[in-house]
Design brief:
The complex is a heterodimer of chains A (about 160) and B (about 300). Chain A has a five-stranded antiparallel beta sheet with strand order 2-3-1-4-5. Chain A has helices at about 5-10, 25-35, 70-75; strands at about 15-25, 45-50, 55-65, 85-90, 90-95, 105, 110, 125-130, 135-140, 145, 150-155. Chain A is mainly beta and about 160 residues long. The two termini of chain A are about 30 Å apart. In chain B, the strands form two sheets. Chain B has a five-stranded parallel beta sheet with strand order 7-6-5-8-9. A four-stranded parallel beta sheet of chain B has the order 2-1-3-4, with helices on both faces. In chain B, helix 1 (about 15-30) packs across helix 5. Chain B has helices spanning about 15-30, 50-60, 85-90, 105-115, 130-145, 160-170, 190-200, 210-215, 230-240, 280-300; strands at about 40-45, 65-70, 95-100, 120-125, 150-155, 175-180, 200-205, 220, 255-260. Classes of the chains: A mainly beta (about 160), B alpha/beta (about 300). The interface of A and B includes residues 116 and 117 of A. The structure holds zinc ion. Zinc ion binds next to loops of chain A.
């Protein structure tokens, strides 16, 4: 993918969602969070693209799927600076930034190996807390903290 | 009132903590009130802990309740591979309350979501053990006459010791002052110090026990365990530094009392035992009254 074409390629999809400014290291986590493995529409991924602001970044373009704000917020824990554009007829009709939610349900693994959620089929549940500059997740069950760099997406 | 559980000490408000203190005192004055007559309480020890189990079961028996359950999982449906979910589901049909201990952290919170009856957490791994915290508070209240404005010195493993973390959270309602005495490897974690900062609660940290206990009201001792040290040499170096000896108690305040969640290993010399400031054995007796209070309160059988 040509690196200067970022803006052109946004217009290159007719209808759908473009998620930009994803840290390159978070691309595969976002694929998991949004369940894109199961998606049947055409999806384009670009990663290790040069970014003035971020160094390297990734971008995802999903044809014919329009992400809701709630869905978008779920990626906040791994891509707090992401921008999300909804495209219709080649035009950006909505621009979203992500908002970090108060709770995270279900898709993140608790980093504590002794936590019940890693031993029984229990849906995980976390409160989002501030830990210095970063966000961290406090497990509702074991009450331990999962730090940002420990975040793994459950299968 | 809907079903009320005690999984973490933070499940109780300040008023509820004070209510438990009041009830514990009433049960201590008369430990044979038959308020649990006709109640069946399941005591489920997925992980053995004889001391805690007997304290709970004795509390229930004194108040006329009956106990069903197991003290370990051998010969139970759990050993046949039944899920934890199903075990709790089934047993909650048979009883009025579940008291449970489990080595997996968060097990009690999960059980409280499945169970139709109240759940009391008697320890979930390194996470919570709220009845211990409440009995610590009751011991403080009894020996100091109040929970307010106490200077408490916590000694030993302040990093992994769940009892000190829960006690710190519960005491935060009562304007305490803390002194933390620990080796560098076992210092109080930042998240708890931040919690105190946010609440405007004073604390100091030191590595020297003798200076710290000078103006203490409560000295809370904990075990320093060998397994906690990545470097065994470091353990050998510090293990004797955090031992309380009778000679150190000279010049401490007359109202000062020494608490310890027990079992102790070597951190309190046996020569302290006969000192009137040693309170750790009475503390275990207080545990029974506190557990009577917790169970009766959650079942709503006391006015
Ligand atoms: Zn957890």
């Amino acid at each position: 993918m040509a690196q200067t074409e970022g803006r052109l390629e946004v217009r290159a999809i007719e209808n759908g969602t473009v998620i930009d400014h994803i840290p390159a290291s978070s691309l595969f986590k976002i694929i998991r969070i949004l369940g894109l493995e199961q998606e049947t529409h055409c999806i384009t991924f670009g990663t290790n693209l040069e970014s003035k602001r971020m160094g390297t970044k990734a971008i995802i373009k999903i044809n014919d799927r329009f992400c809701e704000q709630e869905e978008i917020n779920r990626i906040a824990i791994v891509a707090p600076e992401a921008s999300v554009n909804i495209i219709r007829n080649f035009k950006v009709v909505e621009k979203h930034t992500v908002t970090i939610p108060e709770t995270i349900q279900g898709f993140v693994r608790c980093a504590n190996p002794r936590c019940i959620t890693n031993h029984e089929p229990v849906e995980t549940s976390f409160r989002v807390i501030k830990a210095g500059d970063e966000i961290a997740l406090r497990c509702k069950y074991c009450e331990k903290i999962t730090h940002q760099e420990q975040i793994e997406i459950r299968k | 009132m809907g079903k009320k559980n005690l999984v973490s000490v933070t499940d109780f408000s300040c008023d509820e903590i004070l209510r438990i203190m009041e009830l514990a005192a009433q049960f201590e004055a008369d430990p044979h009130q038959q308020v649990l007559a006709g109640k069946v309480i399941a005591s489920l020890f997925f992980e053995p802990s004889t001391r805690t189990r007997l304290s709970f079961e004795s509390a229930i028996n004194h108040l006329g309740g009956r106990v069903i359950g197991f003290s370990e999982t051998a010969n139970t449906s759990v050993s046949k591979g039944e899920t934890f979910h199903d075990t709790i589901m089934v047993i909650s049909n048979y009883c009025d309350m579940i008291v449970m201990r489990h080595s997996i952290e968060g097990a009690a919170r999960y059980a409280s979501e499945i169970s139709k009856v109240p759940v009391v957490n008697a320890g979930d791994g390194a996470n919570q053990h709220p009845s211990q915290t409440l009995l610590d508070l009751y011991s403080i209240k009894k020996t100091q006459g109040t929970l307010d404005n106490i200077h408490i010195v916590m000694v030993g493993d302040l990093k992994y010791g769940r009892t000190v973390h829960s006690l710190l959270q519960a005491l935060s309602f009562f304007n305490p002052t803390f002194t933390f005495v620990a080796p560098d490897e076992l210092k109080m974690p930042d998240e708890y110090k931040l919690f105190l900062d946010e609440k405007g609660i004073r604390y100091t940290e030191t590595r020297y026990i003798e200076d710290a206990i000078r103006d203490a009201d409560i000295v809370y001792m904990t075990r320093v365990q060998r397994e906690r040290f990545s470097d065994p040499m470091e353990y050998e170096r510090v293990k004797n530094v955090y031992v309380l000896k009778n000679s150190m108690l000279e010049g401490t305040k007359p109202n000062m009392r020494i608490l310890h969640p027990l079992p102790r290993v070597g951190e309190i010399d046996t020569d302290v035992d006969s000192n009137p400031k040693a309170y750790y054995f009475q503390q275990t007796e207080n545990g029974m009254y506190t557990r009577m209070a917790i169970i009766s309160y959650l079942l709503g059988v006391v006015k």
